[in-house]
Amino acid sequence: MSNYPSIIARPTPTGFHGRYVANDGQPTARVPQLQHLYHRAYRHDLDAMLAFLIDQHPAGWSQLGTDPTADCGWINPLPPIGDRGFRCYCHGDRHEPEALLTKETADPLWHEWIYVLRPGGITVTAADPDGDTWLEPVFVPWSNDARPRIGAA
Ligand SMILES: [Zn+2]
Hints:
With about 150 residues, the chain is α+β, with helices and mostly antiparallel strands. It has two helices and eight strands.
């Protein structure tokens, strides 16, 4: 069960390396969250932000949060409604193996958005509503004033 499944990723020369995020992947929620992490939690240290999001939690995420220094492991039973913390599939009460998503394995039927985090900002790619292809990517700069402008095909 998930709502707005997405991928969060770092760019590679030929595509991206990313992790699954089961919930809250719609741009109206995810873009401000990533802006907060970049500007506030990581103080523009994109390498540290990607190390946390991609490398240190290789099984991926149920949800992202706002404070990467707080406990981010899975909690059994499911996190309570209103929990805004990071919840991963590899720490806490879950110990799932690495799951890598790439340009080749991403599926617009199962991953509604892809967020590739770059030095200048975020490349946001939305799945076509039919789930059979990707729409044209939209670039959102790292700016506190940036608002998501996604979905205008
Ligand atoms: Zn983890």
